[in-house]
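README, section 4: Worked example with a bound small molecule

Sections 1 through 3 covered apo chains. Here we extend the same pipeline to holo records, where the ligand is supplied as SMILES alongside the sequence. The molecule in this example is guanosine-5'-triphosphate. Nothing else about the input changes; the structure line simply encodes the ligand pose together with the chain.
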Amino acid sequence: MDVIAAVASGAGSAAIGVVRLSGPGSWGIALSLCRDRTVPPPERHLALSWLAEPRTGRLLDQAMTAFFAAGASYTGEESVELYCHGGPALLDRVLRACLDGGARPARPGEFTRRAVAAGRLDLVQAEAVALLASAETDPALDAGLSALSGRPSAEVSAAREALLDVLADVEAALDHAEEDGVVVALDEVATRLVVQAERLRGWWEAARALRPAVSGVRVALIGAPNAGKSSLFNALLGRDRAIVHAEAGTTRDVVGEMLPLAGAPCLVLDTAGLRDAGAGEVEAEGVLRAREAARDADVVIHVVDGSGAAPSDGFTERVDIVAMTKADLWPGKDPPRVDAPSGVPVVFTSARDGRGIERLRALLADRAAAAVRSGDTARAVVVGERQAQALHSALRCVEAAVEGQAGDAPLEAVAAELRRAVEHLGEIDGSRITDEVLDRIFSRFCLGK
Ligand SMILES: Nc1nc2c(ncn2[C@@H]2O[C@H](COP(=O)(O)OP(=O)(O)OP(=O)(O)O)[C@@H](O)[C@H]2O)c(=O)[nH]1
Ligand SMILES: [Mg+2]
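The generated complex, written as structure tokens:
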């Protein structure tokens, strides 16, 4: 195992910045930088030291150092942390000195990956570390802390055990049926399966409610072609992100951009104009995606052409805010009438002169904050898109097993669904996962973690 090194603190200037080394040999590399030491300081103690480049003697910094022995560190390996002054040039120089000494640059998330490999963290806890390093909201932070505690991992593991027990009974029944033609009553199995399905469904709902806080509030801009969605999208972001054109049907794909709004990170989605007839194949696919984005959104802004040039065929199922666009086209005139669903606020906006954009931002911030608050960390077991997907797959398999059982499907089919459910649960905490999937997960971590 080679020694990896990285700057573990954030970019930009700061009071303190941390350079981290891990792997057998990291003590030797760090010690060669400590100008005033010939032996390592006591492990797990902070020790002040002047650092210099071993080859040239050029000063690096006066820093606090902490040496960790194998088996008593974050990664489980021999490792060192150097708490330096936080300037980018300084940290870069210290890191380069470590690399000159024989370390190699760590890949994103590689320290945590080594901690997982050493059995110090499971995947739920590893992803909790990533969340703690990036959380922008209180519920996300609480979810990260809870996941790191190991409580969710234990719950996932308990559910897997419970399903394995049921699977064992189903397989025993199968064996009996084959050997002696005995039919075993499986009513009790059905009850146990329903309990597990409800448990997983509860986790799924909690994960869904927590999503706005963890991954951002999904805000969909939807409406008729040419209503001014892309123009409004650009105005909200304050930059020219999406293509705007007089031709109806300009936007085809869903375009998403993050917009930080008063403590609630929003993912704003511009979508294709909704129309059923007259759209070509590509646009029709865009319309499908727009509807899907609206269904999946936490906040739906229905965009209506206030000049009346692009007629709307009524509102979608869910609307949280109505934006009447092109308000610059009716100066002095009464604003156009709109039959918005009751209780839904209407904002008059113009992407040309900017009117109404601040009010729309404020309304959006309000709705987004409410979506963030709806996350109930206490019930959450599964956090983040990857875990939620695995959970959803597991839930679908358990539901299929419940249905199969009730509908007299062959026991083999029920057993197969249960086996798949157990595998999907194993993907959540990493007890059943391939290196390739691990690579993909950790590539999304930031450097130095
Ligand atoms: N005067 C005025 N024109 C606008 C405003 N917003 C959009 N437009 C014009 O309306 C036309 C359509 O604008 P887009 O933003 O592309 O509309 P869209 O809803 O994204 O259209 P599709 O992507 O085709 O569904 C363009 O010619 C814009 O310049 C506005 O606030 N004022
Ligand atoms: Mg558009």
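What to look for in the output: The domain at 216-373 is CATH 3.40.50.300 (Rossmann fold). The mean pLDDT is 92.

Section 5 describes how to batch many such records.
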